Amino acid sequence: MARGEGRTVSKAEPAADVAPPLTRTVSHLLKLIGGLSGNGVRLRLAAALVLTLVAKVLAVVSPLVLADGINALSAGDAAGALPMFLGLAGFWAALRFASTAGPQVRDALFQPVSEEAQRRAGTRVFTHVHSLSVRFHQSKRTGAVYRTIERGIRAIDFLLRFLAFNIAPTIIELLLAAAVLGFTYGWMFSAIAAGTVVIYAWATFGVTEWRLKHRREMNEADTEAAGRAVDSLLNFETVKSFAAEQRESERYDRALSSYANAAVKAYTSLVMLNIAQGFIMTVGLLAMVVGAGWLVARGPMGPGDITAVILIMTNIYAPLNILGFAYREIKQTSIDMEKMFALLDEAPDVADAPNAAALNAKRGEVVFDRVSFAHEGRDVGLDEVSFTAPAGKTTAIVGPSGAGKSTVLKLLYRFYDPSSGAVRIDGQNLRDVTQASLRGALGLVPQDVVLFNDTIRYNIAYGKPDATQADLEEAARSAQLLDFIESLPQGWDTRVGERGLKLSGGEKQRVGIARVVLKNPAILILDEATSSLDSGTEADVQAALEAASRGRTTLVVAHRLSTIADADQILVLDAGRVVERGTHAALIARDGLYASLWKRQAEAPETVAAE
């Protein structure tokens, strides 16, 4: 009967009603196995296949040995036949043990191959997902993407084992059993065995096709529940700040209820399938026993032959159980694998050109040449923006919310490509250089520094993994962070929590600054880098940032205009266009948008005091 429903092997997203062709899945698997090199892998595969086939042959032949022993014992001289019976019974037991131990040894031999295949596939998909563009990550749920990878990896092990060691060997065992029954006891028994297998397969495959609909519903509900749980847990601060714990619990409960309802339907349909399979198998076994009893009564067969027929038929049922389960699971896991490989087929919006060279940022001059770009679903992004950020100078970018300041940085990092125009660093078009070399030359301190759930040492060293302890301490000192780290009970080994939530906003910001200082990039980018700091700390860190930016190209995106008053050049964006540019003094004298923003911020403290 079909088993194993408790194991959730499911797809990551809703699938079409028709499962993808198994041939495509097998093709993916063959490519994956083909990529596993080395004589050790080939020897393990060959040994595993041989063990499987030998075990199948022994499982079919061993009942005949026991039958001879029983027939000898019942022939008349039981006492004289006893030694022969005991010897044959022992031989039968040894053969049967070998037939069951073989697959266990096979699994042990094959396990390293399976683990290596899963590791390679998982790493390949993980690497590819990281290479996909910002658009992909903004449009996908993190939990759903992770489930897609996880289920696809599990499907690899399942399919490898069943396709290589169960499906083909099971068919061989069924044919061998039918042949043994026919040659040894008569073709009537072969016909009964074949008829049972055909009816069993027809019922199993037909009901399984119907059941897949319920499995898909269950998997969709499972993915929805996982996505909601991850979203809610990642944003627990927002949940708590809005006192929405009960609301989130109710949303998750509704998702689990949908899963439970679908799971009940899937399990009920499994029970119906199990009952139908059990009935077919019982009728087949009954037909075998009746046929054998009839031949024993007429003389051609002995009592031991009845035992052999029953054992052979029982051995046929064992792979039939696997065959029914495997058919259902192979169809489902092929969907899982297709979803994982669909991620590999997802092409990044931004990709390195075939002949892309490494960026050579010796000076660090940044040029935007008539750059236009609009985010998906927005009318306004950047419109014919042109400017030059001179090498070794500080260029500030200011303007109202939505003016396009952050878009400039995303295009500089090449998270997106301009719809027209070009971005260049030292005369090199960013489309013509590798993304790795480009981002290696840039150092960003964002407005909201997000940290890994690891130690302070790991998070700072992320900017330069091979940095020495002295390098780390110097970077922390530059960011006004060293005294804080050394005051902690666990010092550099203090874990910062999920997304750095164990640290204050200012502490996280200083970790981000230390990380970039350690990286020592050619171009420094500050996106409201001191926005989370108190006024006293801000002055210290601002001095550190000024020291870090000295002599290197620096782009500063700022809302607080007092932090960029000393910039060599200030660009004022409005509605995606550069409307003003110049020094602070020149822009104040111009009395335009910048002067208006400056005046508004200068008056704000007085307004607060008056209130």
Description:
There is one protein chain. With 611 residues, the protein is of the alpha/beta class. It has helices spanning 22-34, 39-73, 78-131, 134-139, 142-185, 187-234, 236-241, 245-298, 303-345, 405-412, 435-440, 456-461, 469-478, 482-487, 505-519, 535-549, 584-590, 593-610; strands at residues 366-373, 382-389, 394-398, 420-425, 428-429, 442-445, 523-527, 553-557, 569-574, 577-582. A 6-stranded mixed sheet has the order 6-7-8-3-9-10, sandwiched between helices. Strands 2-1-4-5 form a 4-stranded antiparallel sheet, covered by helices on one side. Helix 16 (535-549) links the parallel strand 7 (523-527) and strand 8 (553-557). Helix 2 (39-73) packs antiparallel against helix 9, helix 3 (78-131) packs parallel to helix 9 (303-345) and helix 6 runs antiparallel to helix 8 (245-298). The chain is elongated. The termini are far apart. Mean pLDDT is 76; it is low at 1-20 and 606-611.
Short structural summary:
It contains 18 helices and 10 strands.
How many helices? 18
Question: Strand percentage, roughly?
Answer: 5-15%
Total strands = 10
**Which secondary-structure class do the elements indicate?**
alpha/beta
Order of helices and strands: HHHHHHHHHEEEHEEHEHHHHEHEEEHH
The strands making up the biggest β-sheet line up spatially as 6-7-8-3-9-10
Q: Unreliable stretches, pLDDT < 50, 5 or more residues?
A: 1-20, 606-611
Average of per-residue pLDDT values? 76
Q: Separation of termini?
A: 78 Å
Radius of gyration: 35 Å
Shape: elongated
Q: Outline the biggest β-sheet.
A: 6 strands, mixed
- The helix fraction, in percent, is 55-70%
